[in-house]
Design a protein that fits this description.
The structure is a homodimer of 430-residue chains. Chain A has 430 residues and is α+β, with helices and mostly antiparallel strands. Helix content of chain A is 31%, strand content 29%. The longest helix of chain A is centred in the middle third of the chain and has 21 residues. At the A-B interface, strand 1, strand 2, helix 2, strand 3 and strand 4 of A face strand 1, strand 2, helix 2, strand 3 and strand 4 of B.
Chain lengths: 430, 430
Amino acid sequence: MKFSNFFSPTLKNVPAEAEIISHQLMIRSGMIKQSSAGIYSWLPLGLRVLKNIENIVRDEQNKAGAVELLMPTIQSADLWIKSGRYNEYGKEMLRIKDRSGREILYGPTNEELITDIFQSYVNSYKDLPKNLYHIQWKFRDEVRPRFGVMRGREFLMKDNYSFDLSEQDAIISYNKMFEAYIKTFLRLGLIPISLRAETGPIGGSLSHEFQILAKTGESTLYYDKDLEQIDPTNIDTKKLQSYYAAVDDLHDQSKCPIEKNQLKIAKGIEVGHIFYFGTKYSEKLGAFVQNNKGENVPVHMGSYGIGISRLVGAIIEASHDDKGIIWPLNIAPFKISIINLMIDDENCKKVADNFYNQLSSKFDILYDDRDCSIGKKLSDNDLIGIPYQIIIGKRDVKDNLVEFKVRQTNESKKISIDEVINIVSKKINL
Amino acid sequence: MKFSNFFSPTLKNVPAEAEIISHQLMIRSGMIKQSSAGIYSWLPLGLRVLKNIENIVRDEQNKAGAVELLMPTIQSADLWIKSGRYNEYGKEMLRIKDRSGREILYGPTNEELITDIFQSYVNSYKDLPKNLYHIQWKFRDEVRPRFGVMRGREFLMKDNYSFDLSEQDAIISYNKMFEAYIKTFLRLGLIPISLRAETGPIGGSLSHEFQILAKTGESTLYYDKDLEQIDPTNIDTKKLQSYYAAVDDLHDQSKCPIEKNQLKIAKGIEVGHIFYFGTKYSEKLGAFVQNNKGENVPVHMGSYGIGISRLVGAIIEASHDDKGIIWPLNIAPFKISIINLMIDDENCKKVADNFYNQLSSKFDILYDDRDCSIGKKLSDNDLIGIPYQIIIGKRDVKDNLVEFKVRQTNESKKISIDEVINIVSKKINL
């Protein structure tokens, strides 16, 4: 993508309402634009990151055997009245009357609708287990939306729902999702800390939340430091679930079961939550199957959520410096930028064009061909966090050199023009 | 994907409310489930088709130089009041009050919001032309939603918006989109007929609609038969725009400019619409740029829509037989099915497993391993319209044969097991 054809307006000034660093950086780098309180347009740069995260989440769901469908954003109130949550949910639910006066709502979550879909088609234990997910926009009418996409009103969430014959089977499904979540967060370049959690208004008996470590995180976590040492090739769900971990208001030092030198205190941001809630919804909404004795029994359900738009903010909180965002390679909007510092110089243009032609078929490339100052070009590429930057200047090119910069470390070195393709390809394919 | 792990409930009975064939087939094949009037859940099979169409639309937009962003579904009423459309739009607009009593709405289209985004960042003619698109769910509160996804209330649309300095430049952008639309519909396996259209409530002076031919179409079209003969490698926009074409209520035989033997009459379904509307929104919403004389001038805009969820229904109307759907290869939910007629037979299972292992890394495969009757397996695969079907039966396997069926023609022949991979790969990669 040529920067001159792109639509990525970077800003120098931080808007006053942006209190936290991710919100500031997302606005300054031209990732989002607020359209009304807690509601954002995703500009091209932001959308690329959102999609990259979405695709990793999707891929791990598919690998874990979950099947994707898509429920609508607007739901009828009927099912929520049946489940009893229409009154319970309170003002966070965006309630609407359509032109015929029917009560509808913008879905804040989907337990009711998915249970209805399930019960319409499945009626035998032979069709179990099932695990269905979707990635869809939700709306929660927060009383005070803030922190940009971290606590917006319209937000993108992956939510899935498991259906099993028994509690025992349901726990297997639950643990499979636990593992998928750990894998997902590791692939996103994050350190996930899993904590036993209260089930709250969703109900049920078993729940974990997933926090990722970030110096500027909103929660303070107390946890066994071994939780940070996860081997991505060998995830043992039972072991991870056995470690001590608690948020600050649940942590009581006098009752802490682990030794002080094993305990770590760090800041985190919640990005996922999983629940096993038994037959709460299946009983109310009639999701029964026949078991192998011919009896009709309610299915055991779990639900599992990852806040995808929230993750964009959370990852920035976890990975930035004073120059801007530092994207983990897997989710960077572009993996490489080719920065031509002298667009009017024929040699620079030739070298830059040549790299672009060779690399753009293989990788997501941002070709910075803008007519602006050298300073702006360099600072913009750091601000938007491109992992590898090939910087082309007039003097270097005469010596057959370019500058190669790694955003993660901010280190750069001169390398021969002939080596660039080879070095870059190796870095990306690692 | 193993059918036994999938979630694709086929039905024998046609629901009474499904009046048209695409609606009937989408419900019978388990592509969608109605959740309330005009609002559907996309079950896994339907979602795959929807995504395939979306990706082709996206690819042609990118190739034409449009840049993707994503605007939210919920908009503030403010911009619509500014443009004058908040009152004009009538009851089709889903109007909502949030918890603070602010007037918001579920976007039926995005001229206002995109113009606001544009004017926030662009202020020089040097940054033009720009063409921004998004693919997002919209809501129009139809008084009588019907025909399934063809006239739903919540629907997926690709809409884009071009911004130019002058009318002349805007027509260039308009024609580029015209060409992109023709390419898009051809890639979807359709025959597009372009017609000059009224601009209607969007305003402006130039507009075309795109209909695709379907025997069960809703409109009757009168057009020059040369319009059907488009060479996909050489699309001449001017020539296409010069042909005669009109819907029946605008066609007057006595004034028809072409000869009778050149005139064709056929049924069509509208799937796209493009507009040039000048400075209507830019003036009202303050989208001005400085021209090369330093004067502030309003930008010239166009908007362009393709109904993606509507296309799913339209394609089925254009491509089905009495057995079910016939998917064009490019958008089929799975390109190949491996149908094991005898799941308890060891040889059949071995052959089927072997094909699945070899093919599933390269293509989207549906492996029908369900425990159901032979008749149901064969009819389901025809109903859901899998283009190429490898049918594995006990007797054939003993003779080292399988049946290879092409859904388009319903012709099948026995081929040697050793040839299957080769033949299938050639068909798909054509």
